[in-house]
């Protein structure tokens, strides 16, 4: 199994992956919750779930639209005062949530692939901090 196949499993589930992700994120890093004051978390759970598609596509190839979207996402985070130093925490929580959600489908190879994809995506997002991107 690779990230694209595991993403299909996530998207086909009746459970919204993002709900689990935010439970993990806020439990592991409670100070991050401050960045979500006033945010519709039901919507945000869907947004982060769908953003995984961009993470997977970015890892699979150099798609200009995906790169632009990720840089734009970085610009949005920068404008909201979200420091790139928080991204490793986000990635760690994402890895825990992926492992929990995927259960028996999770193995070391899949973990390494997801970690690489998440790191690539967050690296591209940081580009949006240096050169603001609007779409």
Protein model, in words:
With 135 residues, the protein is mostly helical. It is 72% helix and 0% strand. The chain has six helices and no strands. Helix 3 (41-60) packs across helix 4 and helix 4 crosses helix 6. The longest helix has 23 residues, at 108-130. It starts with a helix and ends in a 5-residue tail after the last helix.
Query: What global shape is seen?
Result: globular
Q: Class by helix and strand content?
A: mainly alpha
Poorly predicted segments: none
- Please give the share of residues in helix: over 70%
Query: How much of the residues is beta strand, in percent?
Result: under 5%
Compute the number of helices. Answer: 6
Order of helices and strands: HHHHHH
Total E-strand runs: 0
> What does the largest sheet look like?
none
Radius of gyration: 14 Å
Give a quick summary of the entry.
The protein has 135 residues and is mainly alpha-helical.
What layout of secondary structure does this protein have?
Elements: H1 3-12, H2 17-28, H3 41-60, H4 64-79, H5 87-102, H6 108-130
Helix pairs in contact: 1-3, 2-3, 2-5, 3-4, 3-6, 4-6, 5-6
């Amino acid at each position: 199994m690779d990230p694209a196949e595991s993403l299909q499993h996530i998207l086909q589930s009746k459970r919204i992956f993002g709900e689990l992700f935010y439970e993990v994120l806020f439990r592991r890093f409670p100070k991050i919750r401050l960045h979500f004051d006033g945010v519709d978390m039901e919507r945000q759970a869907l947004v982060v779930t769908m953003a995984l598609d961009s993470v997977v596509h970015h890892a699979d190839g150099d798609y200009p639209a995906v790169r632009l979207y990720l840089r734009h996402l970085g610009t949005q985070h920068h404008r909201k005062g979200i420091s790139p130093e928080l991204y490793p925490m986000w990635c760690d929580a994402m890895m825990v949530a992926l492992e929990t959600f995927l259960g028996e489908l999770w193995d070391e190879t899949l973990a390494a692939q997801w970690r690489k994809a998440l790191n690539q995506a967050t690296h591209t997002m940081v580009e949006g901090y240096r050169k603001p991107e609007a779409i």
